[in-house]
Amino acid sequence: MFGVVFPNRSFPLDASTFAQIDPTHWLLDMNHFVGESYDSIREICIFLLNGFSLPPDKALALYIQSPGSTFLYCGAVTLSRPSAVLSLPWPDPVGLPLLTSAEAPPPSAKIGVSVEDLAGVTSLDVAGERRIERLALKVGENLFNFMQSFCGVDGSKLVVPMDIMDRWFKKFQERAKRDPEYLKGFAL
């Protein structure tokens, strides 16, 4: 039905690696692969297998869960988008009970896969959208700081020179040309 790969960490794993909960839900216990260092796994590639036909109105959604937290939606694949590399922004573990028995299994992180209605899936790549939002906020902050250094005050209004946007944009472009790492700093 589907497969996953942890880039630079695993060979392709098919759905049989996951515990099937019911016909539309699967769980992968991360303790099986990496133990408590689950949060070192930052990406997953999920893909539909050739022989599987997902209905056109359905999506295969991927969720993650740290010990003690709720499931967090990460993204989905569909017939029109049969594979995706998704970021895994693991939530901080919360409210872990103290284990009283040496035989009790340690709490584990999980990856869940679910067949869902396409209309109910809000976005196919949530982490990608968050990266774009962070990038936009950092660029806006850079512009604000630049403008603020040229501001004057007129009563209750801040006054900036008319050409401030052009000056900022030229400076921004020149810096990006000189230093290829400059723009990468905005995406972090």
TrEMBL record:
Domain Hikeshi-like C-terminal: 133-184
Source taxon at top rank: Eukaryota
Ranges of residues in domain Hikeshi-like N-terminal: 17-89
One term under GO cellular component: nucleus
Molecular function GO terms recorded: nuclear import signal receptor activity
GO term, biological process aspect, one: protein import into nucleus
Signal peptide start and end residues: none
Family designation: Belongs to the OPI10 family.
Full protein name: Hikeshi-like domain-containing protein
Organism: Genlisea aurea
Higher taxonomy: Eukaryota, Viridiplantae, Streptophyta, Embryophyta, Tracheophyta
